[in-house]
């Protein structure tokens, strides 16, 4: 015969406690206190906040018990455009911090749009709304895979210069070829200006904003030259000329520079002659009045060799940039340049000056470009 055994008191207490916990959890789960009340996101540039929430699978109706922070971070970092994510929960608020991968540009291949990341990887754009968000990303038109990888290498080597801020200024990047470099780039800027550069000089685009004040007129193009640390301004028509037209253009510039040099030499000879005449007159006057205004004691205390050495140390070296700048500041024969409307020319010093400010240049015939005096 089987006897019925009543549960022990201890077992009843454990059973009751378990029922109470389950009941409390059920009450909490269905209450508003278990819901996320506010969401925020920081660090998003390409994605909108709503797109980030969708990737994280979160909304104000989501419940905390089903969305721990580590799970939200995992969902975000699975997205190929998000490099890193961290989630912070404060009360009923969730704050999301993300770091998106840097996008160099987007391109079209076989009817499909792709984005190119700075690490060299490409990703097809499946979401049409994402395409609308890439308004500050340049179009990579007709660039080969090898060229795009070389561009990405520059972004990896110079992250302090090549970043989102510099890319925002560029609307389109195209291939360009010159006789001295067949693998150049032509960049059409958001403001309509055009920049030509070799791939190795691409990092100098970070200086683009600094030279905008020097641009005069609408037909001006820039050439980035990292080897000489210069940004040259050249008429845009030059890049549309044939080889024969370019030779004629350079010849015209050379003739103008030679004529200017002859005028400068002639003016310098005249200045030297006038200076010699003035020095002769001063010496003669000093000889006549040497006993009238200077005492013997003053002559004994004066050290001509020391004064000459001091003056030689203070005076800039003839022909140096400092000497040319000083002479240019004193020049009074500035006249408009026939070939460059953004410059004026001084025949006496053979230098050019920007019409906007006191920045001086000399023309280098060997490279057919200007060098700024430092």
Automatic annotation (TrEMBL):
One of its GO terms (biological process) is cell division. GO terms for cellular component: plasma membrane. Residues 34-101 form the POTRA domain. This is POTRA domain-containing protein. Residues 285-303 have a biased composition (Acidic residues). It comes from Ileibacterium valens. It is found in: Membrane. The lineage of its organism: Bacteria, Bacillati, Bacillota, Erysipelotrichia, Erysipelotrichales. Keywords: Cell cycle, Cell division, Cell membrane, Membrane, Transmembrane, Transmembrane helix. The chain crosses the membrane at residues 12-30. Its main location: membrane. Residues 263-339 are annotated as: Disordered. Residues 304-313 have a biased composition (Polar residues). Pfam families: POTRA_1. The keyword NAD does not apply. InterPro entries: FtsQ_DivIB, POTRA, POTRA_FtsQ_type. The keyword Magnesium does not apply.
